[in-house]
Design brief:
By secondary structure, this protein is an alpha+beta fold. It is 36% helix and 38% strand. The strands form two sheets. The chain has a 13-stranded antiparallel beta sheet. It has a three-stranded mixed beta sheet with strand order 1-2-16.
């Protein structure tokens, strides 16, 4: 597949980019990241999968009427508490590890977060970091760790003092709103996973963590935030945290919860990070509009909340549209240094300045005053 890009205000030529270069620039990864982070159905499926696996190995369940709170929003709930130990725990852990290796939804999320972190760290460590330690690297490392755990469980079993506890909160409608999994042995206890969503009068709060957020070495991931949901549309602000440091912020606007039930993603997602000084003031805003037969995306790079570059993408099923280029079009390969030098020579900078000057706001930025 090939992408041809023309900026008519700058040059009459076309820049050529093949699918590999398209992915290397991170454009496709950015699009995939937005779709993954916004797809609550896939995330719910992941959580449900492992809850069901754990419940298959439980016999005694304690039940209690209680309330639970997230982000300052409290909700009445029924707490179901189960514990597993001994050979039962070993068999369950093996089942979970083997299920994880085959879980395509989980794979997507691990790759997403790996890609996100590589983009955050690219500003500090350069493109080599992103190319080497991206999402695929994160997933391969995860699978290797699973293989080590499976071998250890099969050969050595589990510590006799080891115990796994799972708490499940259910609302008055019978819907699961939260899950918490923790482990303990003679040395202490630690949290493995927590997912909780509470709501009250149109407001909601959400927490999702992998690993123990109290870990002094910071080996955990935390996503938390709150917002409002009215008439099937949700807004919210979330933070991503690891190693005691906030590495990113996500602002969600107009997320269509009803469309999400049908597997469609609609909404705007703005991602920012202050993890590195060079990222201050910059952000990425992605607006996605989905229908049954088409998806439209707008990806903008922001500077102080002002879009300085925007890429519009559209996917349409069964479209009879075939793009074509003028017969005399000049093509410049973006991956060829000589071609890009020729493209630079073809630029009409004077024409670009004239076009920018016709916009009063841009002209003020260019010339420093409004009295040109």
């Amino acid at each position: 597949e090939e992408l041809y890009l023309q900026v008519p205000e700058l040059s009459s030529g076309y820049m050529l980019m093949d699918s590999d270069a398209f992915n290397d620039m991170g454009i496709q990864s950015v699009s995939d990241m937005a779709e993954t982070s916004g797809n609550i159905e896939d995330l719910s499926a992941i959580i449900s999968t492992y809850t069901e696996v754990m419940l298959d190995y439980t016999t005694d369940v304690e039940r209690e009427n209680t309330s639970v709170s997230a982000g300052g929003i409290e909700q009445d709930a029924i707490l179901l508490d189960v514990s597993v130990s001994g050979n039962q725990l070993r068999d369950m852990a093996l089942d979970i590890c083997k299920t994880m290796k085959e879980d395509e939804n989980l794979e997507k999320y691990i790759i997403y977060f790996g890609d996100y972190m590589s983009l955050v760290n690219q500003a500090q460590y350069g493109s080599y970091y992103a190319d080497t330690y991206g999402g695929s690297y994160s997933y391969d490392a995860f699978v290797e760790e699973l293989d080590r755990m499976i071998d250890s469980l099969e050969e050595e079993g589990v510590d006799k003092s080891a115990e796994l506890e799972m708490k499940v909160w259910v609302d008055k409608s019978g819907e699961i709103i939260g899950r918490d999994v923790s482990a303990s042995n003679q040395s202490g206890s630690w949290q493995l996973f927590r997912s909780l969503r509470t709501e009250n009068d149109g407001e909601y709060a959400y927490e999702l963590s992998f690993g123990d957020t109290q870990d002094e070495y910071g080996e955990y991931f935390l996503l938390e935030g709150n917002g409002t949901e009215r008439n099937g549309l949700a807004d919210g602000n979330f933070i991503l945290e690891t190693a005691g440091q906030t590495v990113g912020q996500i602002e969600v606007t107009g997320y269509d919860t009803k469309a999400a039930e049908d597997g469609l993603l609609n909404g705007t997602f703005k991602m920012t990070s202050d993890a590195d000084p060079s990222l201050y003031g910059y952000g990425l805003e992605i607006t996605i509009s989905s229908e049954e037969d088409s998806v439209t995306e707008s990806i903008s790079v922001l500077s102080n909340d002002v879009a300085i570059a925007t890429l519009n993408l559209e996917n349409r099923a069964d479209s009879d549209y075939t793009p074509s280029l003028p017969g005399d079009a000049e093509i410049y390969n973006m991956m060829d240094e000589d071609d890009m030098m020729k493209y630079e020579q073809s630029m009409d900078v004077q024409r670009l300045e004239e076009n920018l000057g016709s916009n009063s706001f841009l002209a003020m930025l260019l010339y420093g005053n409004a009295g040109w």
